[in-house]
Amino acid sequence: MAKKKEHCDCLNTVKPVRDALDVISGKWKLPIIISVGVGNDRFTDIQESIPGITPKVLAKELKDLEQHKLLKRTILDGYPVKILYTLEPYADTLTPIIYSLKDWGINHRKVVTKE
Amino acid sequence: MAKKKEHCDCLNTVKPVRDALDVISGKWKLPIIISVGVGNDRFTDIQESIPGITPKVLAKELKDLEQHKLLKRTILDGYPVKILYTLEPYADTLTPIIYSLKDWGINHRKVVTKE
DNA sequence: CCGTATCCTGCACGATACTG
DNA sequence: CAGTATCGTGCAGGATACGG
């Protein structure tokens, strides 16, 4: 009598994978990480470097990324006050994953387009 | 005069990464892949192994995964006709990525929970 | 057993305007 | 410059019922 397949480690895998995906999925997360990563450290610079993003969405995404410790928000006193956004070193731990996804995605496009 | 940072390879990275993420993100993709992977090969078995999924959603996700060549849908003639869902070998290419995401996700939870 | 057909809901994201 | 405030919308996913 066949036992029902429980794929018992499903939750143990799905939960952390979803945690990871939540950090990088969404329409704007990756463009923002890349933009800040190449040196755009001011709100307006980031916004202008990402065509189509609105300030409301950018502000929300920056808060998300800051909570996830990928991004640091620094207030520079002076006149006028400046806000700096910079990547945390921790953000580098995402790099190998991003590149794996990139490579897989490039290959996948070939797989699905050629019959 | 500071040149505007263009992060010129943004699209070259973002596009394939998004292609990859589209395949595995969403609420049900991963549970389905895992369920089929451990041997649930009938529609109803898959449905019962994933609490909360509705047949409409399952049918749609199975079609998606089939189009992405991760899944094969086999019609077994006989009486009654049976439908078998099995993972394509190609689906294995996702495994290292899934495990990278899992490991990163497990660690990330520690990072964000401890101050 | 393997789905489709309707109808519905929430939320990510958008447009536009405004502020300390 | 670095955001907030309002209002709006599309679409992934859900509830429920039915069909070959």
Automatic annotation (TrEMBL), chains A, B:
Which GO molecular function entries does the Swiss-Prot or TrEMBL record give? DNA binding
InterPro entries membership: HTH_HxlR, WH-like_DNA-bd_sf, WH_DNA-bd_sf
> A Pfam family this protein belongs to?
HxlR
Q: Which residues form the signal peptide?
A: none
- Gene3D superfamilies linked to this entry: Winged helix-like DNA-binding domain superfamily/Winged helix DNA-binding domain
Entry keywords, A to Z: DNA-binding, Transcription, Transcription regulation
The HTH hxlR-type domain extends over: 8-113
Q: What is this protein called?
A: Transcriptional regulator
Q: What is the lineage of its organism?
A: Bacteria, Pseudomonadati, Bacteroidota, Sphingobacteriia, Sphingobacteriales
